[in-house]
Design goal:
Layout: H1 7-13, H2 17-27, H3 30-37, H4 44-54, E1 73-75, E2 78-80, E3 84-86, H5 99-110, E4 114-117, H6 124-131, E5 135-139, H7 145-157, E6 162-166, H8 176-181, H9 191-199, H10 201-210, H11 227-237, H12 244-253, E7 258-263, H13 266-275, E8 279-282, H14 296-307, E9 312-315, H15 322-330, E10 335-338, H16 340-349, H17 353-372
Parallel strand pairs: 3-10, 4-5, 5-6, 6-7, 7-8, 8-9, 9-10
Antiparallel strand pairs: 1-2
Helix pairs in contact: 2-16, 5-6, 5-17, 13-14, 15-17, 16-17
């Protein structure tokens, strides 16, 4: 059974990612939804990310005859069918079991990149079986050299060729919304949890088949597979260590493009260029780290100016539509990443939910390009 069987119906029932989000909310437990949606503090930055996009408008031009927009692009020497891909998301299996496998398969079918998180719930080895040559790997920098090299080797051996190292998590953030929802590691069997399982049977059955969510990549380096123990190990041994010297080490150790994720300041962008980074991701971690940060889309123009074409600029945070992708590209981004939107798709529709999200985004991007009067991505920066 394939996505094509459901395509027409799904486009009628769920024509936009916001519709998938509404369905996903009904299908997954409250604690999983709150984890996926959460930011930090009063979550003002999540709203500002969206509002900043909505302020970006265009002046369309007409009477150009028939337009057939093309959205293929080349990044780091590799061709992709669209200028967007799947951003890394941690603890993905909490939202729906095997999300990583499903989205990797989507990426392979549609020839867009999928980025596996260090703290995902499936391993590079199992995800690599589905990804083809579309695999990127996101690294929370380990404090220990041996641990870093071991994780990188596993990712490389599994077929992941582009490395995204996260810069914007100097320490874990305060996720008040997640705490209020009662998320604990490991998940505790409580009357509330039992009720959530009863009222979300599809999620419960899928979870029982796959097992409770575990940080399967990093648990290999813990002395015990207990989720609480592994989570403590992650907090003690990953993240908070990044420096420019560390970035240079990664360039030496990784045979492939290295991209620094989480840049908002133009001076950091300039330093990334000087350090030899192949790309940067302009991102505020989707509002999940520092509620006082600027929006990513507001930071983008100054970074584009500072970089001056010397490295590739990727973008994420707040992207929900093909129009949003077009907005980021028009301001100078070379590529765009989305996380929540793809997870909505799988949580709402299962195995082929990622396919549906990809179709929505591709169709929306092409449609808006025609509405604007452009036929290729390069014309977006010429407006």
């Amino acid at each position: 059974m394939s996505y094509e069987k459901y395509k027409v119906k799904w486009f009628n029932d769920y024509p936009a990612i916001i519709d998938l989000a509404k369905k996903a909310k009904k299908r997954i437990p409250h604690v999983a939804w709150e984890y996926l949606q959460s930011g930090t503090g009063d979550e003002d930055l999540i709203e500002r990310n969206r509002a900043a996009f909505q302020k970006i408008t265009f002046l369309p031009q007409f009477c150009k005859g028939a337009l057939a927009p093309t959205i293929e692009t080349t990044l780091f020497g590799q061709k992709y069918a669209a200028p967007f891909g799947v951003a890394p998301v941690g603890l993905t299996g909490l939202m729906w079991p095997r999300v990583e496998h499903y989205l990797a398969a989507t990426a392979n079918r549609y020839q867009i990149p999928y980025t596996l998180s260090t703290v995902a719930t499936e391993t590079p080895e199992t995800v690599g079986q589905h990804i083809g040559n579309m695999g990127w790997f996101q690294l929370y920098p380990p404090k220990e050299k041996d641990l870093r090299q071991a994780i990188l080797k596993r990712a490389k051996d599994a077929g992941f060729h582009t490395l995204l190292v996260t810069a914007d998590v100097p320490m874990p953030s305060r996720r008040e919304r997640t705490k209020r929802a009662g998320l604990k590691m490991p998940p505790q069997i409580t009357p509330k949890m039992i009720w959530e399982g009863i009222t979300h049977p599809a999620w419960t059955i899928a979870t029982l088949r796959n097992g409770l969510p575990r940080l399967r990549t990093v648990e290999a380096y813990a002395t015990h597979t207990n989720m609480k123990f592994v989570s403590n190990m992650v907090g003690n041994r990953l993240g908070g260590t990044l420096s420019w010297e560390y970035c240079q080490l990664l360039k030496e150790e990784w045979d492939g493009p290295v991209v620094l994720k989480g840049i908002l300041h133009p001076k950091d962008a300039e330093r990334a260029v000087a350090t030899g980074m192949d790309g940067i991701v302009v991102s505020n971690h989707a509002g999940r780290q520092f509620n006082g940060a600027t929006t990513s889309i507001d930071a983008l123009p100054a970074i584009v100016k500072a970089v001056g074409g010397k490295t590739k600029i990727l973008f994420d945070s707040g992207v929900r539509t093909g129009l949003d992708i077009m907005r980021a590209l028009s301001l100078g981004a070379d590529f765009v990443l989305l996380g929540r939107g793809f997870v909505y798709g799988v949580a709402a529709l299962g195995k082929y939910g990622g396919d549906h999200v990809t179709e929505i985004l591709m169709d929306d991007l092409k449609n808006n390009m025609v509405q604007l009067g452009v036929e290729n991505l390069g014309q977006l920066t010429e407006l």
